[in-house]
Amino acid sequence: MDAITPNVVFQIFGMQITDTVSSTWMIMVIMILLAWWVGKKAPVVLEMIVDFLNDSLSDVMGMSAMPYVPFIGTFFLFIAAANIFSLIPGINNPARDINTPAALAITVALSVYYFGIRSRGLWGYLKSLAEPVVVLLPFELIGHFTRVLSLTLRLFGNVVSIELIVAIIFSLLPAVLPSVMAVYGAATGLIQAYIFSVLTASYIGAGVAANEEFAEKNLDKEQAELVQA
């Protein structure tokens, strides 16, 4: 259990900083420096990443995902980087601490509300949660909660299972095979990053699509009223 339990490494003004938090900070610094270097030396690489995310997420959302690529793309890059950079000694995968997947999942859930309210207004979005009948509102809210739970457990479970498998093999076999398994774990992490991003896009896309349908219906209604007038 020590392998997946965060350990306190130092304190700042009385606040305990765990290895999960320190690893997250290191990954953030590496990502910022790497993005700066790639943007300066090979900006076309960044363009390719943006285009890949836009094309992939647009297919899922059924609309242009470009307005949401900076947000969703950050999840993809962070989760992918966390799995790759965890191969570096001294850096632990933040997702092996369940608090990190939970924080990411909660952020996704709040973003769905944010984008929904931004596109439809507070009252309009609240009304959409109760459609087609108010009786279904509790079930809708339960569904939102299960999204958070599903995203959390999916990411946490996959990361921990791979790390435990590598640890077991490392204790039984020479170091060569565990090294291969570690690379396999990083590749699996890329898949998990993609899945997490796609699910996030589908949740946001569902709400935004509903809002666009609502706007189109109102527009058609207004045009019909103008014609009758």
Description:
This protein has 229 residues and is mostly helical. The protein is 78% helix and 4% strand. It has helices spanning 19-41, 43-61, 69-85, 99-120, 122-129, 137-172, 176-228; strands spanning 8-12, 15-18. Strands 1-2 form a two-stranded antiparallel ribbon. β1 (8-12) and β2 form a beta hairpin. The chain is globular, with a radius of gyration of 21 Å. The N and C termini lie far apart (72 Å). Mean pLDDT is 78; it is low at 211-229.
Report the sheet-strand fraction: under 5%
Shape: globular
Strand order of the largest sheet: 1-2
Number of strands: 2
How does the helix and strand content classify structurally? mainly alpha
Oligomer status? single chain
Q: Compute the gyration radius: what is it?
A: 21 Å
Mean pLDDT: 78
Number of helices: 7
- Helix/strand order: EEHHHHHHH
Q: What level of helicity do the residues show?
A: over 70%
